[in-house]
Amino acid sequence: MMDHKQRKILVTGGAGFIGSHLIRLLINKYPNYHIYNLDKLTYAGNLENLTDVEKAPNYTFVKGDITDGPFIQELFGKIDFDGVIHLAAESHVDRSIENPTAFVETNVLGTVILLNAAKTAWEGKEDKLFYHVSTDEVYGSLGEEGFFTEETPYDPRSPYSSAKASSDHFVRAYYHTYGLPVIISNCSNNYGSHQFPEKLIPLFINNIKHNKALPVYGDGKYTRDWLWVVDHAKAIDLIYHSGLKGETYNIGGKNEWKNIELIHLLCDIMDEELGKPSGTSRELITYVKDRPGHDRRYAIDAEKLESKLGWKATITFKEGLRETIKWYLSNESWLNNVTSGAYKDYYNKQYHTA
Ligand code: NAD
Ligand code: DAU
User: Quick one: which of 64, 66, 89, 195 is 20 to 30 A from 108 by CA?
Assistant: First the structure.
């Protein structure tokens, strides 16, 4: 539904993967809104993700760190935001295993600093919303059967998911304790353009391109529920405008794949797109040491979002994966830019070897 009211919305982490898709959607769909993108531009944040919209009159980029309390308080003092959509986070599980503290600082402390700023600035004001974007990983790991619902008890297993779970708890605590208007959504694995090539799909596309090994963790039978990133952005838009305050919404596309089956599909599409003989890319598959504490299976039940707000995923995985592959293959300079510099050290580390 089109909303013609003027609003100032602060999106945190808008230079990242999901944030950049959300910013693009909001700028184009709501010309009467002003969208502020607050981002620290870590290794994962890249303003090249937004070159097509950066000159829009309803867009402002603010470089800043959500863990910088005085800066955040000042920002909320200067601009009377109607809403916050909070995505800024450290997002990669493998990195959280190497350096948990960074995840506590950004994901937990950063969220609490934003909550404090919103609470102070919004005291006595109506029609505000703090929307926290979270992950299905807070629910832990499933066996062969079943789905995560909004009632599934939290059981995070990795430093990343523990930090995200903690931030979710703080958001709910501010709702119950201070009456801050909040909404949380918990989404499954996203895929699509502009994802930093440390995550499974863009990493493997990049490795195939450079004829490098494809490191499959453990037995490769871990299962993830994949959602096209634009469908996630559309869900966030819908929930922001129509969701009930104090509520949680799960987001997922009912699209489960065992890693190895997904990797086979990806290899086969890559062979077609690169004009290589069928089976060439599969030869790069290399089983390596498992991720410590690796969650076996995630699967989302998005029934609440579908039935109450009318959301549904729009694209099949095979279409979306091919589109995604084509995007990475035709955006070589983007890939080269984001994999150079500080990221190179991490990328070249032997973490993935057996
Ligand atoms: P990303 O790593 O691509 O982007 C994170 C962004 O946050 C980057 O632009 C980075 O510069 C920024 N950032 C990091 N620390 C910051 C700080 N201290 N201050 C300001 N900005 C900072 O992440 P993503 O995959 O786009 O995920 C976005 C959000 O969605 C995260 O909260 C993540 O937990 C959640 N999420 C991700 C997925 C997924 O599959 N990627 C699924 C469900 C939920
Ligand atoms: O479920 C939502 C979560 O999905 C988000 O909250 C996280 O931010 C996002 O990073 C993602 O977490 P995963 O750990 O599931 O994503 P990743 O791409 O790192 O891994 C997907 C699966 O592939 C997982 O089972 C681990 C496996 N894997 C991953 C990499 C990077 C490999 O086998 N080899 C690899 O090199």
Answer: 195
